[in-house]
Amino acid sequence: MLQITPNLSIPEDWLDEKFVRAPGAGGQNVNKVSTAVQLRFDARGCRELSNAVFLRLKAIAGSRMTSDGVVLISASSFRTQDLNRKDARERLADLIRRALAVPKKRRATKPTKGSQERRLQSKKRKSDVKKGRGTGLRHSRSYED
Question: How far apart are CA 144 and CA 132, in angstroms?
Answer without folding.
Answer: 22
